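hey can u check if this looks right to u? its 239 residues, i copy pasted from the old doc so theres a chance i mangled smth
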Amino acid sequence: MSGHSKWSKVKHQKATTDAVKSREFTRASRGITVAVREGGGLTDPDKNFRLRLAIELAKQVNMPKDNIERAIAKGAGSGATAFENLTYEGYGPGGVAYVVEAATDNHQRTAAAVKHAFDRAGGSLATPGAVSFQFQKNGVLLIAKSDMLFDAMLDRAIGAGADDVIERDDVYEVYTKYTELFAVRQVFESSSLVIEHASLIMRPLNSVSPQADVRLKNEALILALESLDDVQNVYTTME
């Protein structure tokens, strides 16, 4: 996911073709497998919050229960293909900063594919740490607006331990510290508020608004990166 106000669109994303659906299933499956491995082999989503989030993302793309269970079993199996998380940093057209998260079993394949996407768009990969300082690790919750006014939502969110709230057309984006997402979510789950999505993200500290032609080039780069099977998330500083 990227820094161009994509959170409020998450719940509207649908797999519209078989190719897109297959890619979404692959991405979701790898996310589940990695979550189990990085969670020390814990397969209970109530005890492994990363796994819980990964399962929820899988359900959002209508991934069948059997596929989810196989991905969990794969993450817990000692002989399974070992996927691991990798992070790439780079700059797109106009100097827009990028952080790309991938889950892969082949470093060379993934690095080559990501580099090709940047090169083709007129951007470039950067060395580790050259871009990531422009982002901050956060948790984000999408809360259905219903009839709650912004001030009331802000008071409730701050009281639950959140850091910030942004109002969108149909949801509130509630931002938390990276380590506090689970705790804040539990507070909201005990109330009548509807949580439509929860994620751990890289949020840009400052956003840029490029000219229309540069924006189109960056949107093409984002699409190219997100179309790669190994890529899990794309974050940018573009508004």
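DSSP finds seven helices and eight strands in the chain.
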